[in-house]
Amino acid sequence: MTNLTEASIEIIRAGQSSSGGYAACASFSQYGYSWLRDGTWIAYAMAAAGETSSAEAFHRWAARTLLSHEGKVERLLAKLERGERLEEADYLPTRFTLDGAIGSDDWTEFQLDGYGTWLWGAVQFCAGKPELWAALRPAIALTVRYLAALWQSPNYDCWEEHRTQIHTATLAAIYGGLTAVRSVDAALVPDGLPERIRAFTFEKCVAPEGHFVKFIGNPEVDASLLWVALPYRVVEISDPRFVATLAKIERDIHRPGGGVYRFRADTYFGGGEWLLLTAWLGWVYAELGRIDEARALKAWVEAQALPNGQMPEQVDTHALDRTHIAPWIAKWGTSACPLLWSHAMWLILDLRLKTVSG
Ligand code: BGC
Q: Looking at residue 218, what DSSP letter applies?
């Protein structure tokens, strides 16, 4: 039987360019880029698995890449200062080529969550590494300024949809990134900013029923709402608002005995069950001490791996709307496999469960 730890590390290594960037899925037509969101979690998993040089190479790549686009950020901030309207091309992208360039094809680029995620991940990785922190600091400072200017702007969510909305999970990632930076380098973060973001989230992103919502004005849940507590700690995992969110996620988008959907109305490749989100729910269960349930989700993820250990982005056996599968395949080819982020979240859950006795 394939050893999934070894296979995952091998697959991630193979997807990392010598520049340090990770291709989200090199074999899928659209995913040959390095996303800050995917990359940060891949690096986090690699560091947890002892592959620190891979994680360091990613963070150095991210910092180099962001600084190489410093002029773009300065122009954007100057425009805002002058009260001018921003164009789509003024924003930083959500993904870069492995060389750190901005891709030339059309993409839903303006997404802020990856920037918050990267800040959060960089802080975790730099703990006890002051020299590395000093090396990343200019890019971190630039990212904080970018987020401080834009956090209230509608932008695409972490699934690259709904450009005109403000998404709870995105606010959570920004909050998590900024609080992480502040905890190690308070001078970089404007006074009170994380608190303003949190207060805004509580005011706008909680349904009358008490759970967090997908985006302002949409009362559905989305699996990315797990991030509100784990890891970004907008609220503690025991907070009643998170408890209600988790219960609704379990009811609405976790298939009993199966995996987790992104959200109920998902049609991307038919809206299948996502491995990385199933592992995330398992991670939440592990934090809550619901170890048997965490293990069951881990086993489900493992059962979706191909015999050679490769893990797909999603599986369509119980897709939410099968009529959307063929059109996506016709457009972009079969859905992504192996998806490095799936491997990363499985590794994180597996390592977390290995620390639990029994
Ligand atoms: C997902 C994003 C992800 C990207 C690359 C998209 O389909 O919605 O969350 O960053 O794929 O994996």
A: B
pLDDT digit string, tens, across residues 95-145:
999 999 999 889 999 999 999 999 999 999 999 999 999 999 999 999 999
Average pLDDT value over all residues in the chain: 98
Using the atom order of ligand 1, give the atom closest to the CA of residue 340: 12
Burial class (CB in 10 A: 0-12, 13-18, 19+), 200: middle
Q: Is the CB of residue 222 less than 8 Å from the CB of residue 164?
A: no
Tell which one of 341, 342, 343, 345 to mutate to probe ligand 1, the residue whose CB is within 8 A of the most ligand atoms.
Answer: 341
Instruction: Report whether 62 contacts 44 (CB < 8 A).
Output: no
Active site includes 220? no
Of 76, 268, 252, the residue nearest 159 (C-alpha): 268
Task: Give the number of other CB atoms < 10 A from CB of residue 180.
Answer: 25
Give the SS3 label for residue 255: coil
Sign of CA dihedral 38, 332, 273, 236: positive
Which atom of ligand 1 lies nearest, measured to the CA of 95?
10
- Classify residue 212 by its DSSP letter: B
CB atoms within 10 A of CB 164: 8
Report the separation in Å between the CA atom of 268 and the middle of ligand 1, taken as the mean of its atom positions: 11
Whole-prediction pTM: 0.98
Give whole-number Cα distances, 297 to 263, 316, 337, 357, in Å: 18, 17, 19, 18
| H or E element that contains 180 | helix 168-184
Query: Could you tell me if the CB of 37 is within 6 A of ligand 1?
Result: yes
Six token digits for residue 274 = 């996502």
Q: Which of 38, 109, 113, 157 is catalytic?
A: 157
What the block records as the tokens of 89 is 């091309």
Q: What is the pLDDT of residue 358?
A: 53
222 is catalytic: no
Nearest to 352 by CA among 285, 302, 303: 285
Please report the atom of ligand 1 found closest to the CA of residue 262. Answer: 8
